[in-house]
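Our preliminary data section would be incomplete without showing what the modeling component actually yields. Below, a chain of 287 amino acids is followed by its predicted structure, encoded as tokens that our downstream tools consume directly.
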Amino acid sequence: MKKYVIITASDAKYGDFLANHWLRSLTDNVDLKNIDIVILDYGLTREQKNKISNSAKIIKCKNDGHIVNIRYRDILAFLKKNNYEQVMAVDGGDVIFQSNFMILFKEHKTDFRISSEGLQAGTNESSLISNPIKSEISRSIIKELKNKKVLNAGVIIAPRKKLISLCYFITENISKPDLFGPDQVLVNYYLYKHGFYEIDRKYNFIFSTAVNKFKIKAGVFLDENNIPIPIVHNAGGKERWRPIKNFGYGENYNKLKFFTYYWLRFAYHLNFITNPLLRLLLNVRGK
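Predicted structure:
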């Protein structure tokens, strides 16, 4: 067992991306001598597992909900049995790595580390509409997260014991684990209640909400100073809402979907109107 661990999750749908882009970009760009890689397997094919087995530990898991939610149950089970110092939990189907980020494991080691989104997506409010979280804390969540920056759960770093506590809280409070979104709300609620250190957005760079400009050159995402952005995240929930077409690792990948990109940014600029309306609806429904 190494000192640190990076944990992600995938099924067969995203298994090719995991093997050919997520994992390859990680091994090419990050010093992994002190880091284990763990893949939670929710139905990877034999071929996909063969591609990743030399570089990562594969943990077979029960696929009985949306992976973004049930992964916390299985991260919890894994960490209870494995005593790593620091843990990074990261999305596996829409993230690539472009440069080293070891600093995230070595600084602010007693804190949760997470980045906020730039333009404010209505993630917290819209995710509560379908009642995916136990009612006992739903009202408290609405109050706690009012006018707070959205923290993106695609990349979280924490000491093992703190991440265990977060995973337990999420697992206990999701009432509809098959829906997309409640994990993000619960991560935001828990971290605003218990504290966190906000890392630079370059360690979870989300194109549709980014404040800083970026460019794509030969498949590489560059910042305003023409430096590769360490961790890039083609977030969107569904493929049609992801702003990068043919997202991947290599010079033949990554084209901006102009309409999707600018439409999302326009919509996010309207959230100063839509988010209060959603909160009002949630409060009225909760009475």
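The chain is about 40% helix and 15% strand. The radius of gyration is 18 Å. Preliminary results of this kind motivate Aim 1 of the renewal.
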